Amino acid sequence: MFKNIIVRKPGKSLVDGIASADLGKPDYEKALKQHEAYIEALKKCGVEVTVLEADERYPDSCFVEDPAVVTKKCAIITNPGASSRKGEQVEIKEVLKKFYDEKNIEEIKNPGTIEGGDVMMVGDHFYVGLSARTNEGGARQFIDILKKYGYDGTMVPLEKVLHLKTGLAYLENNNLLVAGEFVDNPVFKDFNRIIIDENEAYSANCIWVNGTVIVPAGYEKAKKAIEELGYKILIVDTSEYRKVDGGLSCLSLRF
Ligand code: GLY
To answer: For residue 170, what pLDDT is reported?
Structure first.
């Protein structure tokens, strides 16, 4: 169960966030409203939500999942692979000092890079995507740190997607949403895989929060499949974040 969630409000600079899809610029006012709705949904899941102020220096800094990975025993400050995101980790480290003993705050060092969107926690095991943002050196450092705390990890080379959790969401109880390149990946064969339709691929980025699954608005097949598994569902519209390659998981740190 999660007790704490950290989010960061989007800044006006969100419009300059890194974008690979041709979906236009985010509407800032709409993005702010969607962020408020996201926070309300999280609060309904029984967690304490810490809301950080926007940081205009970093257009993607509302995607607070990327500069750190938070576990029950330690926080691992990442080293973002995207040049415009370098520095976000310094800010989040200060915040995490309020939640973790300094001796349990670890850091990934150059030339290793890793972003939290490439890390999926499944109990004591962590899957780490090797992507354009996360290199093997970063993933190796990360897994070595995990081992100090009794955890372990598996590297998963990515082919197309930005981050590992762009196409996967672990919903606990062995249930895993899988989309695109992960559908046939043997690494995930022992999970109860819920295959997300190609035309709803964005909805593979859901989050499980204390028994509830938060699902992006507009993906009816995914919603129905998750409901059929017996989860309570909350819907949040993330249309403005999608325009800059962001989704539900990217918008929070959950621990
Ligand atoms: N725009 C989100 C990211 O690229 O990191």
So the answer is: 98
Atom of ligand 1 nearest to the CA of 18: 1
How many Cα neighbours within 13 Å face the side chain of 109?
3
Q: Does residue 59 contact residue 46 with C-beta atoms inside 8 Å?
A: no
Q: Label residues 177-199 b or e (16+ Cβ within 10 Å = b).
A: bbbbbbeebeebeebebbbbeee
Domain residues for the domain of 165 are 4-254
Instruction: Work out how many domains the chain is built from and give that number.
Output: 1
252 pLDDT above the threshold of 90: yes
HSE toward the beta carbon, residue 204, CA cutoff 13 A? 27
CATH number at 233 reads 3.75.10.10
DSSP per residue over 90-126, as a string?
Answer: HHHHHHHTTTS-GGGEEE--TT--B-GGGEEEETTEE
∠181-183-186 over CA atoms, to 5°?
Answer: 100
Report how far ligand 1's centroid is from the alpha carbon of 131 (Å).
Answer: 13
Are 79 and 69 in contact, with CB atoms under 8 Å apart?
no
Query: How far apart are the CA of 2 and the centre of ligand 1, in A?
Result: 25
Alpha-carbon distance 102 to 233, whole Å? 36
On whether the CB atoms of residues 67 and 82 are closer than 8 A, the answer is no
Query: Is 163 among the residues known to form the active site?
Result: yes
pLDDT at 21 over 90: no
Tracing tokens 């539900």 back to the chain, one arrives at 248
Q: What's the chain's average pLDDT?
A: 98
Over residues 148-176, the mean pLDDT reads 98
Instruction: Quote the pTM value.
Output: 0.97
How does pLDDT run across 193-245, given as a tens digit for each residue? 999 999 999 999 999 999 999 999 999 999 999 999 999 999 999 999 999 99
